[in-house]
Protein backbone atom coordinates (compact mmCIF):
# COMPACT_ATOMS: atom_id res chain seq x y z
CA UNK A 1 0.00 0.00 0.00
CA UNK A 2 1.35 3.39 -0.95
CA UNK A 3 2.41 5.54 1.98
CA UNK A 4 0.03 8.50 2.18
CA UNK A 5 2.89 10.87 3.03
CA UNK A 6 5.17 9.90 0.15
CA UNK A 7 3.97 12.83 -1.98
CA UNK A 8 5.23 15.34 0.60
CA UNK A 9 8.64 13.65 0.65
CA UNK A 10 8.87 13.47 -3.14
CA UNK A 11 8.56 17.25 -3.41
CA UNK A 12 12.20 17.19 -2.34
CA UNK A 13 13.34 13.67 -3.26
CA UNK A 14 11.47 12.49 -6.37
CA UNK A 15 12.81 8.92 -6.26
CA UNK A 16 12.25 8.37 -2.56
CA UNK A 17 10.44 5.30 -1.26
CA UNK A 18 9.55 4.18 2.21
CA UNK A 19 12.52 2.69 4.03
CA UNK A 20 10.53 -0.56 4.28
CA UNK A 21 10.25 -0.73 0.48
CA UNK A 22 13.92 0.16 -0.01
CA UNK A 23 15.20 -2.63 2.22
CA UNK A 24 12.81 -5.12 0.58
CA UNK A 25 14.17 -4.15 -2.84
CA UNK A 26 17.77 -4.19 -1.64
CA UNK A 27 17.54 -7.72 -0.30
CA UNK A 28 15.55 -8.96 -3.29
CA UNK A 29 18.07 -7.56 -5.79
CA UNK A 30 21.04 -8.99 -3.89
CA UNK A 31 19.46 -12.44 -3.74
CA UNK A 32 18.40 -12.36 -7.40
CA UNK A 33 21.64 -11.06 -8.90
CA UNK A 34 24.29 -12.23 -6.41
CA UNK A 35 22.59 -15.33 -5.02
CA UNK A 36 23.00 -14.29 -1.39
CA UNK A 37 20.41 -14.46 1.38
CA UNK A 38 20.25 -11.97 4.28
CA UNK A 39 22.03 -14.33 6.69
CA UNK A 40 25.06 -14.25 4.36
CA UNK A 41 25.30 -10.46 4.51
CA UNK A 42 27.32 -8.57 7.11
CA UNK A 43 25.74 -5.15 7.42
CA UNK A 44 27.35 -1.87 8.46
CA UNK A 45 25.69 1.51 8.40
CA UNK A 46 27.09 5.00 8.53
CA UNK A 47 24.13 7.04 9.72
CA UNK A 48 23.60 9.80 12.25
CA UNK A 49 23.44 8.74 15.89
CA UNK A 50 20.13 10.65 16.26
CA UNK A 51 17.65 8.45 18.15
CA UNK A 52 15.03 8.93 15.43
CA UNK A 53 17.15 6.83 13.08
CA UNK A 54 17.05 3.93 15.52
CA UNK A 55 13.29 4.37 15.97
CA UNK A 56 12.65 4.49 12.21
CA UNK A 57 15.21 1.86 11.16
CA UNK A 58 13.59 -0.64 8.74
CA UNK A 59 12.98 -3.95 10.59
CA UNK A 60 14.08 -6.22 7.71
CA UNK A 61 17.58 -4.76 7.92
CA UNK A 62 17.99 -6.90 11.05
CA UNK A 63 17.69 -10.05 8.92
CA UNK A 64 21.28 -9.30 7.94
CA UNK A 65 24.11 -9.76 10.41
CA UNK A 66 24.66 -6.54 12.33
CA UNK A 67 24.50 -3.64 11.91
CA UNK A 68 28.00 -2.51 12.75
CA UNK A 69 27.76 1.23 13.45
CA UNK A 70 30.23 3.34 11.45
CA UNK A 71 28.57 6.74 11.70
CA UNK A 72 28.46 9.68 14.06
CA UNK A 73 26.78 13.05 13.65
CA UNK A 74 24.94 13.33 10.30
CA UNK A 75 26.26 9.94 9.18
CA UNK A 76 29.93 10.74 8.63
CA UNK A 77 31.97 7.52 9.12
CA UNK A 78 33.83 8.61 12.23
CA UNK A 79 34.69 4.97 13.09
CA UNK A 80 37.29 5.35 10.37
CA UNK A 81 39.71 2.72 9.11
CA UNK A 82 39.81 0.89 12.44
CA UNK A 83 36.03 0.50 12.39
CA UNK A 84 35.95 -0.61 8.77
CA UNK A 85 38.68 -3.19 9.38
CA UNK A 86 36.94 -4.52 12.47
CA UNK A 87 33.67 -4.85 10.59
CA UNK A 88 35.40 -6.56 7.65
CA UNK A 89 36.58 -9.39 9.88
CA UNK A 90 33.03 -10.27 10.93
CA UNK A 91 31.70 -11.18 7.47
CA UNK A 92 30.76 -14.75 6.42
CA UNK A 93 33.42 -16.04 4.02
CA UNK A 94 30.81 -17.16 1.46
CA UNK A 95 28.88 -13.92 1.69
CA UNK A 96 29.21 -10.17 1.34
CA UNK A 97 29.52 -6.96 3.28
CA UNK A 98 26.78 -4.38 2.80
CA UNK A 99 27.82 -0.84 3.68
CA UNK A 100 24.84 1.51 3.85
CA UNK A 101 25.67 5.18 4.34
CA UNK A 102 23.48 8.25 4.38
CA UNK A 103 23.12 11.68 5.89
CA UNK A 104 19.61 12.21 7.20
CA UNK A 105 17.10 15.00 6.95
CA UNK A 106 13.59 15.54 8.25
CA UNK A 107 10.47 16.31 6.23
CA UNK A 108 7.13 16.94 7.88
CA UNK A 109 3.81 15.74 6.52
CA UNK A 110 3.29 19.31 5.23
CA UNK A 111 6.52 19.03 3.23
CA UNK A 112 8.64 21.29 5.47
CA UNK A 113 12.28 20.22 5.18
CA UNK A 114 14.70 20.16 8.09
CA UNK A 115 12.33 19.36 10.92
CA UNK A 116 10.00 16.65 12.25
CA UNK A 117 7.49 16.15 15.01
CA UNK A 118 9.04 13.69 17.46
CA UNK A 119 7.37 11.27 19.87
CA UNK A 120 6.05 13.02 22.98
CA UNK A 121 6.66 16.56 21.72
CA UNK A 122 4.13 19.15 20.60
CA UNK A 123 6.49 21.41 18.65
CA UNK A 124 8.70 20.31 15.76
CA UNK A 125 12.44 19.98 16.26
CA UNK A 126 15.44 20.12 13.93
CA UNK A 127 16.45 17.10 11.87
CA UNK A 128 19.36 16.82 11.31
CA UNK A 129 20.12 19.09 14.24
CA UNK A 130 23.87 18.88 13.68
CA UNK A 131 23.54 19.89 10.03
CA UNK A 132 21.26 22.80 10.89
CA UNK A 133 23.61 23.91 13.66
CA UNK A 134 26.62 23.84 11.36
CA UNK A 135 24.64 25.63 8.65
CA UNK A 136 23.60 28.38 11.05
CA UNK A 137 27.24 28.92 12.00
CA UNK A 138 28.16 29.05 8.31
CA UNK A 139 25.46 31.62 7.61
CA UNK A 140 26.69 33.82 10.46
CA UNK A 141 30.40 33.45 9.55
CA UNK A 142 31.22 31.77 12.87
CA UNK A 143 33.20 28.82 11.48
CA UNK A 144 36.98 29.22 11.74
CA UNK A 145 39.10 27.48 9.11
CA UNK A 146 40.86 24.45 10.61
CA UNK A 147 39.21 24.77 14.02
CA UNK A 148 38.62 21.20 15.24
CA UNK A 149 38.46 20.60 19.00
CA UNK A 150 38.56 17.30 20.85
CA UNK A 151 35.58 18.55 22.87
CA UNK A 152 33.33 18.70 19.79
CA UNK A 153 35.30 16.85 17.13
CA UNK A 154 32.37 15.49 15.13
CA UNK A 155 30.46 18.76 14.96
CA UNK A 156 33.63 20.66 14.08
CA UNK A 157 34.31 18.21 11.24
CA UNK A 158 30.86 18.87 9.75
CA UNK A 159 31.46 22.61 10.10
CA UNK A 160 34.70 22.31 8.13
CA UNK A 161 32.99 20.30 5.39
CA UNK A 162 30.36 23.02 5.05
CA UNK A 163 32.95 25.80 5.15
CA UNK A 164 34.87 24.21 2.29
CA UNK A 165 31.65 24.18 0.25
CA UNK A 166 30.42 27.60 1.38
CA UNK A 167 29.81 29.13 -2.06
CA UNK A 168 27.84 26.11 -3.25
CA UNK A 169 25.65 25.94 -0.15
CA UNK A 170 24.93 29.67 0.06
CA UNK A 171 24.08 29.97 -3.63
CA UNK A 172 21.47 27.19 -3.46
CA UNK A 173 17.75 27.93 -3.30
CA UNK A 174 17.49 25.83 -0.13
CA UNK A 175 20.62 25.92 1.98
CA UNK A 176 19.84 22.87 4.11
CA UNK A 177 18.92 20.68 1.15
CA UNK A 178 22.21 21.58 -0.55
CA UNK A 179 24.18 21.12 2.66
CA UNK A 180 22.76 17.60 2.89
CA UNK A 181 23.89 16.93 -0.68
CA UNK A 182 27.35 18.19 0.27
CA UNK A 183 27.33 15.91 3.29
CA UNK A 184 26.35 12.91 1.19
CA UNK A 185 29.27 13.52 -1.15
CA UNK A 186 31.70 13.89 1.76
CA UNK A 187 30.47 10.62 3.28
CA UNK A 188 30.58 8.85 -0.07
CA UNK A 189 34.14 9.98 -0.71
CA UNK A 190 35.32 8.86 2.72
CA UNK A 191 33.58 5.47 2.46
CA UNK A 192 35.29 4.86 -0.90
CA UNK A 193 38.68 5.64 0.67
CA UNK A 194 38.03 3.33 3.62
CA UNK A 195 36.83 0.49 1.41
CA UNK A 196 39.86 0.89 -0.84
CA UNK A 197 42.18 0.40 2.15
CA UNK A 198 40.39 -2.59 3.67
CA UNK A 199 40.74 -6.33 2.97
CA UNK A 200 37.48 -8.31 3.06
CA UNK A 201 37.55 -12.13 3.36
CA UNK A 202 34.33 -12.65 1.42
CA UNK A 203 32.88 -12.67 -2.10
CA UNK A 204 31.48 -9.16 -2.55
CA UNK A 205 31.47 -5.65 -1.15
CA UNK A 206 28.12 -3.93 -1.67
CA UNK A 207 27.99 -0.14 -1.31
CA UNK A 208 24.65 1.59 -0.87
CA UNK A 209 24.66 5.38 -0.62
CA UNK A 210 21.49 7.35 0.06
CA UNK A 211 19.75 10.17 1.85
CA UNK A 212 17.72 8.83 4.78
CA UNK A 213 14.57 10.87 5.29
CA UNK A 214 12.84 11.03 8.66
CA UNK A 215 9.14 11.81 8.80
CA UNK A 216 6.93 12.94 11.66
CA UNK A 217 6.25 10.39 14.39
CA UNK A 218 3.23 9.00 12.49
CA UNK A 219 4.86 9.06 9.03
CA UNK A 220 7.68 6.55 9.24
CA UNK A 221 10.90 6.97 7.30
CA UNK A 222 11.90 7.16 3.66
CA UNK A 223 15.02 6.80 1.60
CA UNK A 224 16.37 7.95 -1.73
CA UNK A 225 19.17 5.79 -3.12
CA UNK A 226 22.09 7.47 -4.88
CA UNK A 227 24.42 4.49 -5.28
CA UNK A 228 24.00 0.71 -5.29
CA UNK A 229 27.27 -0.88 -6.42
CA UNK A 230 28.88 -4.23 -5.86
CA UNK A 231 32.54 -5.19 -6.16
CA UNK A 232 33.46 -8.79 -7.01
CA UNK A 233 36.50 -9.38 -4.82
CA UNK A 234 37.81 -12.24 -6.99
CA UNK A 235 37.80 -10.28 -10.26
CA UNK A 236 37.79 -6.65 -8.94
CA UNK A 237 34.84 -6.04 -11.29
CA UNK A 238 32.55 -3.24 -10.13
CA UNK A 239 28.98 -2.89 -11.29
CA UNK A 240 25.96 -0.77 -10.44
CA UNK A 241 22.64 -2.40 -9.54
CA UNK A 242 20.63 0.83 -9.53
CA UNK A 243 18.74 -0.09 -12.70
CA UNK A 244 17.77 -3.46 -11.23
CA UNK A 245 16.81 -1.77 -7.96
CA UNK A 246 14.35 0.59 -9.64
CA UNK A 247 12.93 -2.16 -11.85
CA UNK A 248 12.31 -4.50 -8.91
CA UNK A 249 8.62 -4.74 -8.13
Automatic annotation (TrEMBL):
InterPro entries named in the record: LCIB/C_CA (IPR040703)
Highest taxon, organism lineage: Bacteria
Pfam families linked: LCIB_C_CA
Domain Limiting CO2-inducible protein B/C beta carbonyic anhydrase stretches: 18-232
Listed name of the protein: Limiting CO2-inducible protein B/C beta carbonyic anhydrase domain-containing protein
Record organism: Dyadobacter jiangsuensis
Amino acid sequence: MKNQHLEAVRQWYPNAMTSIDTIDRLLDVIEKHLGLKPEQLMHADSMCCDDVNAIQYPPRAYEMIGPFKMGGLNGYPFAGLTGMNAFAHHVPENGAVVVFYAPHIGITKEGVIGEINRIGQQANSACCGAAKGALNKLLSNQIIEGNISSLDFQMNTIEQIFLHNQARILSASNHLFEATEVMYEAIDNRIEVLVGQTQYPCKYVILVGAVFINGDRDMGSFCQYKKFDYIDLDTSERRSLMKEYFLEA
